[in-house]
Here is the input.
Amino acid sequence: MRILVIGSGGREHALVWKLRESQAMEEIYCAPGNAGIGQEAECLPVDATNPEAILELAVERQIDLTVVGPEAPLVAGVVDLFEKAGLVAIGPTKAAARLEGSKVFSKQFMERHRIPTARFAVAGNF
Here is the structure.
């Protein structure tokens, strides 16, 4: 199995480290990765917030499974694009990622659905 992990932080490093243990894993890549991750996987330079560039990379490298770590690519819709292209990606869709990507949306969602949360106010531009 050829695996791509998207991101460059500690979460992605831990994912790469653990995924390497799978006997099903043939090759593992991380985009964009970092120096530490580079010791565990091949790092590929790509803008993690550009879903089209990530998809192109996944097709080019014949990736079987993509794991998305950070919220920015999720909010940008990378999982939606992969699903549309028939590729397997682990992570929430763009709509679901809004809960993490927008604190205002999250707070309003919780208020609307009577989910307990701290009080809040939304400030506008001044």
Summary: The two ends are 52 Å apart (CA to CA). Helices lie at 10-19, 51-60, 71-76, 78-84, 94-101, 103-112. The chain has one domain: 2-94. The chain has a mean pLDDT of 94.
